[in-house]
Each structure stands twice: as structure tokens, then as C-alpha cells.
Write a structure and sequence with these properties.
Two copies of one chain form a homodimer. Chain A has 444 residues and is an alpha/beta fold. Chain A has two domains: 258 residues, nicotinate phosphoribosyltransferase, CATH 3.20.140; 179 residues, Alpha-Beta Barrel (TIM Barrel). Chain A contains 16 helices and 19 strands. In chain A, the strands form four sheets. In chain A, strands 13-12-1-5-3-17-18 form a seven-stranded antiparallel beta sheet. A six-stranded parallel beta sheet of chain A has the order 7-6-11-10-9-8. Chain A has a four-stranded mixed beta sheet with strand order 16-14-15-19. In chain A, strand 14 and strand 15 form a beta hairpin. In chain A, helix 10 crosses helix 11. The first copy, chain A, starts with 11 loop residues before the first helix and ends with a helix. The relative contact order of chain A is 0.15. Chains A and B meet through helix 1, helix 6, helix 7, helix 8 and helix 9 of A and helix 1, helix 6, helix 7, helix 8 and helix 9 of B.
Chain lengths: 444, 444
């Protein structure tokens, strides 16, 4: 059993509902859409991510013998149900907004059209995957916006919520425009560029800081970044200058130093001066330590001479907004539109499409949420077909393609939406009259 | 390759440091301790969890042929390093605070004593596992404290940060005193009790809500909880009373209803009244929908007749405090104590122990952080040996044992620390003079 692709990554109620659907012959076509109800605090847009993992999950859906045996042994389900699960594959269609695309509340980023049991079972894991990657891509895009031209590296694995979160956070931030990650497994399994320097323990394990620096540089003669804040950052910068002169004779370059604590603005300026005066103009300064897009914004505004940033906990937990109000809702069953009308949680019925309109400067002007086949002349439909009869319609998109899309989407954002704080005016998402009318008809 | 146990669940700098350690013969004994620097907002204590997964990781540490091949193909490492990794196992000792124990900032919850490379490599994953489970156990304990006698169920999988987070959150909240989880995989792999009802989609897929209720009840005649807020909660409660009378003739009982939106206090009171007037005194009311310990506290204070709560997103993301300042620091190498003195991040050197003192009412009075073998007459040492030479000293603790410990720890908390808001006075953690003296000696 590969735990990460198991169909038992679901809520018990999905299985209890499936059992009832089978028992009552409810296997007609259902349409579910995945969307975010509203923006969290401090967010003016969201960036879609996680589709690739979602499609993988759907394409490989099947119950293993071990899983079927376990289901059969629970007191809840009978042998008939286990037989149905054994045959179960995902054979439906999927429409989605491509990864790296910017989207807004109420806009579906994924639509699943399948038999009711198939579409129901996968709800929990589809949200679990797409919610998290979208959360982190959205968070990462904010650092990308405030730090153009800087190296941005995901340092977050240790405080990510489990291993999968660490790996998917590396992917989502890379999609959004990060330079790479420190998480080795994300490099191995997904080919994301890896970055790494040294830790305080390396310095502390030596009796002399300079010896620690020298040994590390000797081990990596062509690319070495030395961590200089273990004891006294300014003193360590002076040691680097001394050391670099000696190392140069052996063809060894100190390519960078890292600051991880203290007043990063002041220290970066002091260290830059020391390095420059010592002739180390090419030695870059990398900063880390409780950084997020707010602090990076301030450091850049203060002209701190920092070339790159390692961003950890705040990125991978999306600390100022650790979840999105992401849901997956039934919009149609057996050919009839459906909706819930619970207070504060009412949904728009039917199969929907999002059309995007651009202004004269080729920036996003507004979106229209409407029914799938409603006309929208001159607008760009965001949802496209990605899976048919349970098979992907094309190979997985490359990171190059997704990252270019993300960059181009960020460039098309209206300026007001690029701010780190909540914008005065939300981006316009208009609900088309035809959709309002359908909802109204269903209400009455 | 089992992704979740891979030694490549680490940061690149651990590998680059290991390579340098091997190159310079630095394989003497290192001591690292894992602790949390400070309490996050709204927390007065923390509850340790995740040790079981951490020990599993250590006991099974080895590089697979596929992983070794990948390391060899990176441009960074040579064949010598790959040979070293191939031989690598975790052969060290581990001391830890047992799961379910309450602890405070600066107190080590795990100590690793091993060769420097072994102890270094595992840093990232040890924090990744123990940080998250401790985070969620701590969050869950707050709901347990405010809702004595209530059924508490983890509903969070879909918005957990990936699959492993969903499963480990189910474990951590169960340790803290939750009744169970909706996450099927946590039931299958860890034996945590599973709970589940029905979703709105089940109701919506029927043209008539009463038919949906009847079908679900017929499928689960002895234990059925019906979701009644899809359209109009009060009207649905009346339908339940009507339906229950008919079902009873066939031996079918409606054991519970679930509310998931709206004014839960008012609705619970209305629904309770309708159920009682309809003779359904035994039908319980279960509530969910953006719940956390603050809302549960208020609902209980308002005497809302709710028997159980499903808690999702806020629990599994620890939404009001989505991370802890958890670190793993070198405290000794080659027989000499070590410490970093970076501003705001200085550490206490040496192998430490935490002693807990109780007051006359058998409540926690204060703790003392001191060196391992310093005497502390009449106090309880919290760190105990759990692994020696890379092997566990005892079988994994059962949930029964851990849950009893957690309950007893919560009962011993001073009242002021049980509040949901930050207490006026922090719990006392005294640093023993012998430890202050050692740190001072190292400073000078």
C-alpha cells in the first residue's frame, strides 16, 4: 500500500454515503466543483496549484486487497460493499484552471463529472491536495511580488505539517516563482532545484569558528555559503575576509555568507561593507530567520544589501492565513442542478465557467462566473478539460510552463491587488444573470 | 522507497555538513536536544506528542539503493560519501518526555546522543514529526479542557496540510483526549476510533430531504446520524420526528442529528425541543462548522444542548497558532558542552534534565531545568531513556496508556493555565544555578 495514494485517505462519511448510494442504485452522473468561498485575511488573490497531484490521485484510484480486507472487517460494511469497492476506478471527466493561474472566491478551480459514488469518494483527498498547494502558492506569490530579482528559497520542511506538506510546499512555492528549496526529497522526487548552506551545529562542533569555515570551504571549493551568526556576526565577517585571502591561493572561493538572526538590515550593511573592503565584492549575502513577505518587503525598502532570502515556517504553514475556505460541492445530479441553501454557505448551482476580461493594458479587468455554455465574447475561459473517462488528456505540464504562466499572471495583476494588505476594493467577480436566475428558480 | 520513512526527508545542508564531517573525521559523540523556545500566542502549556513516529524513523533509518544512486548523481557529492551513506544506520541513544506529558518552553522533550553525522542527519525529520504532533495535541487539549464529557471528533483531514498531517492530527488529538476521528486512514493504520455521518451532497442528490433521511437510516438501522441543515434546520428536525415514528415500526432508530451552519446555540435549543416533544429524547445533537475551542466554550457556557462536536480546520492547522518555535540544537560534542549565542537564539549548553515539583494538591508547582545528573530531591524527572544503540527499550506505548497520562496531566494543571487566553503568570521554569554557571563559563 502506498499510503499517499490510498483511496482510504478520505472521511468515513464518504464510505457510509457510498454504501447507501450503492444500496439505493444512485449511480447517475454527479457534478462537483471545488472552489474557495472567500479570501482569507491579507489576501487579494489566490494562485491555483495542486492539480497535478489531484489528477495522479484520480488516475491511480483503486483499493488494494489489504484495504478491501480492512473495510470488510469493520463492523459497518458488508461483503456487497467490498465487492463494489474492488471494482471501483475513477472513470470521470475533469475540468480545471491550470496551475499557476490567479483566481478569486466562488470561482471553481476544479470540476469533477462522474458517477455519484466516484465523485463523492474523492472529495476529501482532492481538497486536501489542492487546498494546501493553493494555500502555499498564494503565500509564496506574495514574496515573489515584493522581491523581484532576489533568490528565494523554501527552508520550511522542519516546521511543515508532516512530510507531504514539506514536499508539496516546495512544489507550490517553486510554481509561484521561488528559486528552489532546501528539501532534499522535493529535489529527488520532483526535480526542484536544491539549495543548502550549513547549520550552527557545524560551527559549534568546532572549537574555532575559522576552522569550521575553512573546513567547509575546502569541502566545497567552488560554491560555499558560510553561516556567520553563531557567535558574533560582524567578527565572523572579518574572519571570512582573512580566510578568503588564504583560501584564494588554493583556488577556493567563498561565494556567500548567511545571516540568520539579529538586526538583519544593520548586519547586512555592516557585513557588506566589511566584505567589500576586503575585496569580496562577489560574495553574496543570504538572509534567513523568521522571515516572511512583510519583513522581506521592509528589508528591501530599507535597501539592505541582501541577495537572497530563505523563507521557512511562515511560508509552509501560510502562518498569517493557515487555511482557505475551500470546499467541493455537488452542483448537479442526474441532469438536475443542485444547491445547498444553508445560511452563509449557499452555493451556485450547475456546471460553471469563469471568463476573464482584460483591460487595455492587458491587466485583469474583471471575471464573470456563469454557466458552462453561456456565451462570453472576447473573454478567456479559465476552466479547461484535463481528464476524460479517467485518463489525462495530456502529459503533466512542465515546471517551465507552469512557472511562466504564474509569472505572467502576476504581471497581469492590477497594482492594487499586489499589496500585502487587504486592498480597498476587491477584484470584480460578476455573477452572470443566467446563473442568478437559475439559483432564484431553485429557491422558489 | 517508502517516502514517509526516507532519510532524504531532510534539508540539503544536513547532507553537505555530513559530507564535511566525514571528510574531516568528525564522528565523535554529539548531543542534540529538541525543545520549543517560547509559547505561541494563546497557549499556557504544550503537550508532547510524536515520539512514536520519531523513534520509528530512527529505528528504520537507511538509504535505499535508489536513494544512494540519486545522491551519487547530484553534482555535489562523490562516491566516498555515497559509500558512507550506504553503511549509515541510527545507532545512538534517545531520552524523551513521554507522549501526553505537559511541558513548557526551553524544556527538552527529546535528546539524541549519537555520532555527529547520525545525530545531524535526522534533525529535519525529527522536528517535522514532533513539532506537528505536539502542535496539534496542544491545540486539541484546549477543546478537551473546555468540553468535559462531550464527544469530540477530528473532522480536519480535508484542510490538513497534506495526507500525513491529516493522519498525525488524528493521532495527536486522540492522545489529547478526543473521542476519535473521521479520517479513515487513521483508523486503518493506527486503530483510532472512526466517526462519520453524512454530507450535504447526500441530501442534495435526492429530490426530497425526507427520502434522503429515510434511505440513510435504512442503510444504518442501528446507528444513524442525519445532517439536517442543508435547507432549513428547524423544518428538517420536524421531518425527523415524523420519520422516526415510521422507522421505529421497522426497528430503525435515528440516533443523532448534525447541525453544520447557522446560529448553533439557537438551533440546538430549537431542535432539542422539537426532538423531545416528538419523543426522541435519546436522539443526540452533534454540531460542526468552523468550530474551535473558543466557540465550543461559548456554546457550553450558553447551555446549548449539544452532545458532541466535530472540529476540523482550526484543530488540524492549529489555526490561531500554526507553528511552534521548535528547534533541535547541539548541546555537546566530543565531551565538551556547546552553545550558540546568536541574539534571541542563545541556547543552554550540556545534557539536561527537567524536574517537576508538585504542590500539596498534587498540581504542578514549578519545573527546574538543570544538568542531567544534578540532584533534585523529591522531584519527578521528565526525560526517560527510550532508545539505546538505535533500538527501542520497550514496545510502543498503547493509546490507553498515553491517553490516561494526558488526562492525568491535564488534571494536574494549575487552574490559571487552563484558560484559553494567555495566563497572567507564566508557569515557573527555573534554570538551576549549575546550568547558569556552565553557560556563564562558556560565555567568558
Amino acid at each position: 500500500m502506498n499510503l499517499l495514494s490510498s483511496p482510504l485517505l478520505t472521511d468515513l462519511y464518504q464510505l457510509t454515503m457510498l454504501n447507501a448510494y450503492f444500496a439505493h442504485g444512485m449511480q447517475e452522473t454527479a457534478v462537483f466543483e471545488l472552489f474557495v468561498r472567500k479570501l482569507p485575511p491579507n489576501r487579494n488573490f489566490m494562485m491555483a496549484a495542486g492539480l497535478e497531484q489531484a489528477l495522479d490521485f484520480l488516475e491511480n484510484l483503486r483499493f488494494s486487497p489489504d484495504e478491501l480486507e480492512w473495510v470488510g472487517k469493520t463492523a459497518i460494511f458488508g461483503a456487497d460493499f467490498v465487492e463494489q469497492l474492488e471494482k471501483m476506478r475513477f472513470t470521470g471527466d475533469v475540468q480545471a484552471i491550470p496551475e499557476g493561474t490567479i483566481f478569486f472566491p466562488e470561482e471553481p478551480i476544479l470540476r469533477v463529472t462522474a458517477t455519484l459514488p466516484e465523485a463523492q469518494l474523492v472529495e476529501s483527498r482532492l481538497i486536501n491536495l489542492m487546498h494546501f498547494e493553493t494555500l502555499v502558492a498564494t503565500k509564496a506569490a506574495r514574496s515573489v511580488l515584493v522581491a523581484p530579482g532576489k533568490t528565494l528559497v523554501d527552508f520550511g520542511f522542519r516546521r511543515a505539517h508532516g512530510a507531504e506538506a514539506g514536499i508539496l510546499a516546495a512544489r507550490a512555492s517553486y510554481i509561484a516563482g521561488f528559486t528552489g528549496t532546501a528539501t532534499v526529497m522535493a529535489g529527488k522526487t520532483m526535480g526542484i532545484p536544491l539549495f543548502g548552506t550549513m547549520a550552527h551545529s557545524f560551527v559549534e562542533a568546532h572549537d574555532d569558528e575559522s576552522i569550521a569555515f575553512a573546513r567547509f570551504a575546502q569541502t566545497y571549493p567552488h560554491r560555499t555559503t558560510l553561516l556567520i551568526d553563531t557567535y558574533d556576526t560582524v567578527a565572523a565577517a572579518r574572519k571570512i575576509v582573512e580566510l578568503a585571502a588564504r583560501l584564494r591561493e588554493n583556488g577556493i572561493r567563498v561565494t556567500g555568507v548567511r545571516l540568520d538572526s539579529g538586526n538583519l538590515e544593520g548586519l547586512a550593511k555592516d557585513v557588506r561593507k566589511i566584505l567589500d573592503e576586503g575585496g569580496l565584492h562577489d560574495t553574496s549575502i543570504f538572509a534567513s530567520g523568521n522571515l516572511d513577505e512583510y519583513r522581506i518587503h521592509d528589508l528591501i525598502a530599507a535597501a539592505a544589501p541582501i541577495d537572497g532570502f530563505g523563507i521557512g515556517t511562515s511560508l509552509v504553514t501560510s502562518a498569517d492565513a493557515p487555511f482557505l475556505d475551500a470546499v467541493y460541492k455537488l452542483e448537479e445530479y442526474a441532469g438536475k442542478p443542485r444547491r445547498k441553501s444553508s445560511p452563509g454557505k449557499a452555493t451556485w448551482p450547475g456546471r460553471k465557467q469563469v471568463y476573464r476580461y482584460y483591460d487595455e493594458a492587458a491587466r485583469f479587468d474583471h471575471d464573470v462566473l456563469t454557466l458552462e455554455h453561456a456565451p462570453a465574447p472576447g473573454a478567456e475561459p479559465l476552466l479547461v478539460a484535463v481528464m476524460s473517462n479517467g485518463r489525462r488528456l495530456a502529459a503533466a505540464e512542465s515546471f517551465r510552463v507552469i512557472r511562466e504562466r504564474a509569472a505572467s499572471q502576476l504581471a497581469c495583476l492590477p497594482d492594487g491587488l499586489k499589496a500585502l494588505e487587504t486592498a480597498d476594493a476587491h477584484y470584480g467577480v460578476q455573477v452572470a444573470p443566467v446563473l442568478c436566475k437559475l439559483a432564484e428558480e431553485m429557491r422558489s
